[in-house]
Design goal:
VC0802-like, 7 strands, 129 residues, alpha+beta, 3 helices, globular, seven-stranded mixed sheet
Length: 129
């Protein structure tokens, strides 16, 4: 059992993780997504958004499902991501994690979503629909 028993929801959309040039302008198409994330580093501009919004030819990994951890979680609460990521790692599932002020989002490949849900359930986490 995990140190934390967490609640989570699976969002209905499918997502894409895009890799753009570090100097690229933040694309307007990404901002139309109900949930999106943008992060710039010296090496790239990463954009996560609804996969249907990503223009053809854009370098992207499509087909991600999104698991929303049901926060908010106080900043001093430790082990939240570990409680979720460890069972997913044991199940052999790759992830892409995003965090906001209040909560965390975990992307897993959509064709492995059922395995992710099973792993989280086995670890004591509860899906809220």
């Amino acid at each position: 059992m995990a140190d934390h028993q967490l609640k989570y929801s699976v969002l209905p959309e499918k997502f894409a993780v895009c890799r753009l040039a570090p100097s690229a302008t933040i694309p307007e198409w990404a901002l139309a997504s109900q949930i999106f994330s943008v992060m710039r580093t010296a090496d790239e501009l990463s954009v996560v958004c609804g996969e249907e919004l990503v223009p053809a030819g854009t370098p992207a990994e499509r087909g991600w499902a999104c698991i929303q951890l049901r926060g908010p979680f106080p900043f001093e609460m430790t082990g939240v991501l570990a409680a979720v990521l460890n069972p997913l790692a044991v199940a052999g599932l790759g992830i892409f994690a995003m965090s906001t002020f209040d909560t965390d989002y975990i992307l897993v490949k959509a064709d492995r979503l059922r395995a992710a849900q099973d792993a989280l359930s086995s670890a004591g986490h509860i899906e809220v629909r």
